[in-house]
Amino acid sequence: MPQITVDYTYASEESIDMEGFTRALHETVVEIAAAKPEACKTLLRAGIAAYGYEDMDQSHTLVHVTIGLLAGRSEETKANLTEAVLDLLRKYVSSEDGVTLHASAEVRDLDPSYRKFER
Question: Which InterPro entries does this UniProt record tie to the protein (predicted)?
Answer without folding.
Answer: 5-COMe_2-OHmuconate_Isoase (IPR004220), Tautomerase/MIF_sf (IPR014347)
